[in-house]
Amino acid sequence: MSNLLEVKNLKKYFKTNRGLLHAVDDVSFTIPRGKTLGIVGESGCGKSTLGRTVIHLHEKTSGQILFDGKDISDVDKHQLKALREDMQMIFQDPFSSLNPRMSVSQLIAEPLLIYKKCSGKELEQTVMQLMDTVGLAQRLYNSYPHELDGGRRQRIGIARALALSPKFIVCDEPVSALDVSIQAQIINLMQDLQEEHQLTYMFITHDMSVVRHISDDIMVMYLGMMVECCDSEEIFHNRFHPYTKALLDAVPIPQVREKKERRLIKGEITSPIHPGDECRFAKRCPYADQICFEKTPVSEEICPGHFVSCHHVREINHLQENK
Ligand SMILES: Nc1ncnc2c1ncn2[C@@H]1O[C@H](COP(=O)(O)OP(=O)(O)OP(=O)(O)O)[C@@H](O)[C@H]1O
Ligand SMILES: [Mg+2]
């Protein structure tokens, strides 16, 4: 299967008063066409920065991005404008990402006008079609965002993202701000759209049940780095990195009957500013020894399609060496 997106050794460092902040540090992954990669990890681990850097909303520090067979690592203004048609973003808080002075139809028409896709009667019809696609009633054509509930506002955000018929959408916590009952409707809509339009998603979330439901693969991040990446179901049954174990053990999974000891993550959090050559999780890891404080682990394919960055992954999980 062909990959729509291939990211190699991507880094994004921010200059801060205290020094260089390693928000995304040497992250590599691929997303096959029409599939969803879920990105999970605690607040501040670099999920949004990763998504934004991939679609050039942030300028990368280094690394390579291949999209649809083309190297888009370095693009000029003109190329970026063309790229925007193919790569879009859906934001967490639809209210703050929508201009309150624009009506529903104006908001959905905006990308079409900027990209001179259509005008007049055709524009009106395209907007109505998009409203239909995302399940917004036509009577809301002249309404304003403040008159609508969170779910409908997020439908506007989705219609805007879809307007230019993109291939790839970064969905940054698109349902976190919504009521649980509305979350399911939006997730279902996004899955239907994915199927219908062959969309490829990068889906960022804190919610492990949402990510399990929507993702084909899941990547777990810790302080700017990828610690584990594999098939979405696999991670719920066979997780190998001590951080992933702790993260998922903290989530109540109703199907699991046996009583489990909950692993709490204790210890100091490594600073993302000049983090040094050590495993970022070492200070909190019960298995850490000397090598973990001396060398950053590199990602290794532990079994087919299952990548883990941990010096002691085999001992911890009683796995054989790959030979
Ligand atoms: N524009 C910026 N300038 C400086 N530092 C930034 C900037 N954007 C993000 N950061 C820092 O980069 C790190 C990663 O932030 P990011 O927003 O990507 O995390 P996140 O995983 O999306 O968190 P959350 O789950 O809270 O949304 C954090 O330490 C954050 O403070
Ligand atoms: Mg974020």
Question: What would your notes on this structure say?
Answer:
It contains twelve helices and twelve strands. By secondary structure, it is of the alpha/beta class. The protein has two domains: 3-215, Rossmann fold, CATH 3.40.50.300; 241-323, no CATH class. The strands form two sheets. Strands 6-7-8-3-9-10-12-11 form an eight-stranded mixed β-sheet, with helices on both faces. It has a four-stranded antiparallel β-sheet with strand order 2-1-4-5. Helix 4 (104-114) crosses helix 5, helix 4 (104-114) runs parallel beside helix 6 and helix 6 (150-162) packs parallel to helix 7 (180-197). It starts with a strand and ends in a 6-residue tail after the last helix. The model is unreliable at 255-259 (pLDDT under 50). The structure holds adenosine-5'-triphosphate and magnesium ion (MG). Adenosine-5'-triphosphate binds next to strand 1, strand 2 and helix 1. The site of magnesium ion has 3 residues, from helix 1.
